[in-house]
Design goal:
This protein has about 375 residues and is an alpha/beta fold. It is built from ten helices and ten strands. It starts with a helix and ends with a helix.
């Protein structure tokens, strides 16, 4: 007889196969969203880490509007800010540069605040929940989103899997990448309990293509301001380990989402879009003329901003939109625009990089004349 676990795996594979083959191409996400809430690291942060730095490590009080970040890790605006423009949504951005999903798994110390970088589990999600419950003295609610018009996006993993974390075996004793993945879905559960119903889970970026981790023959750097300890190490080995880890975990993302939603039915009436941002960024890398539009020759191996190992004496290209990467670790502003446009497509059922899971509303079934 098959074990319980084997039966679950068989059921999951069957459900996924039937779902992909038999369901409509989209799950009726019709762009009804008015509010976008984002969580993540420097790829998503606008200026939240800056607040911590400028306030001796203290977090913004509930109800604090941090405004637009005009000079983010992309060199310009962040992808969620562009996404809010393209989708005409109000943005509540809780991402913190340097964040991991959980400091109980792979904390990374930040000397500027004399503490680990604030993480999603311990800071970002609680900060959102506090804001969602905050009412100003004049009676105005800070958070205006409602369950049926708010979408939550989580994009995390660059720091979790990088140096000073799993790449260099710096995670806490006994912790594995499974704990990272569990953390991501635990945050979905917490947000669901607080009222969230629509989610976009973004898989891991192709970290193996970043100049910081790329193989030497593909422009990989010997050391960077974010990984000075890489000097003298085997760049090919580092690239290989990162390639394998990203590929394996993205495979888990692909199957765990439908397992939780369809097979295990962990959450009732939840709708999750899986955004394959990894494939999108690889497409930029291998087909740059379709995405980059700067005046200089298109460049997917170099960086628009070049600094020394201390992060100083930087020189920025006069044509940053010609680059996929702003610096050795971060996508450029042009790449962020592309991700944002595709994210808006995810919300409007027009992105080929999205897969949708969850109950299809009755109105959508009637509209499409589904059985």
């Amino acid at each position: 007889m098959l074990s319980s676990w084997a039966l679950r795996v068989l059921a999951a594979n069957l459900a996924i196969s039937v779902g992909l083959a038999g369901r409509p191409p989209h799950s009726c996400w019709d762009g009804q969203f008015k509010t976008l809430v984002t969580f993540g690291d420097s790829y998503t942060d606008e200026n939240r880490l800056g607040y911590f730095i400028n306030h001796n490590g203290s977090a913004p009080p509930p109800g604090t509007d941090l405004g637009i970040g005009y000079k983010t890790a992309s060199g310009g605006l962040s992808w969620p800010r562009y996404a809010s423009f393209y989708s005409r949504t109000s943005l509540y951005n809780y991402a913190v540069s340097g964040a991991v999903c959980s400091n109980q798994v792979s904390p990374r110390f930040f000397s500027a605040i004399n503490a680990p970088f604030p993480d999603i589990e311990g800071y970002e999600v609680p900060a959102y929940i506090a804001d969602s419950q905050y009412t100003s003295p004049n009676g105005t609610k800070f958070f205006t989103g409602k369950p049926d018009d708010t979408v939550y996006a989580i994009w995390i993993g660059t720091n979790d899997l990088g140096n000073d974390a799993f790449l260099t075996d710096s995670q806490l004793p006994g912790k594995t990448v499974k704990d990272y993945m569990d953390c991501v879905f635990n945050q979905v559960a917490r947000l669901y309990e607080s009222g969230g119903r629509y989610f976009v889970i973004m898989n891991l970026a192709p970290l193996e293509l970043l100049p910081q981790y790329a193989s030497p023959e593909m422009g990989g750097l010997e050391a960077t301001q974010y990984f000075p300890g890489k000097a003298g190490k085997n760049g090919t080995e580092i690239n290989g380990r990162m390639t394998e880890t990203v590929a394996a975990l993205n495979e888990v993302y692909q199957y765990r989402t439908p397992y939780e939603v369809v097979v295990n039915q962990t959450w009732a009436d939840i709708k999750i879009a899986q955004f394959d941002v990894n494939s999108l960024m690889k497409d930029i890398y291998y087909n740059p003329a379709s995405y980059l539009n700067g005046t200089a020759p298109l460049n997917v191996e170099g960086t628009a901003n070049v600094c020394n190992l201390q992060g100083a004496n930087c020189t920025e290209s006069s044509s940053p939109d010609s680059f996929e990467w702003f610096d050795p670790l971060h996508p450029s502003e042009q790449t962020s625009r592309v991700i944002a446009r595709e994210f808006a497509g995810v919300l409007n059922n027009t992105s080929p990089y999205a897969t949708y899971w969850g109950q299809v509303p009755m109105a959508c079934q009637m509209e499409r004349k589904l059985p």
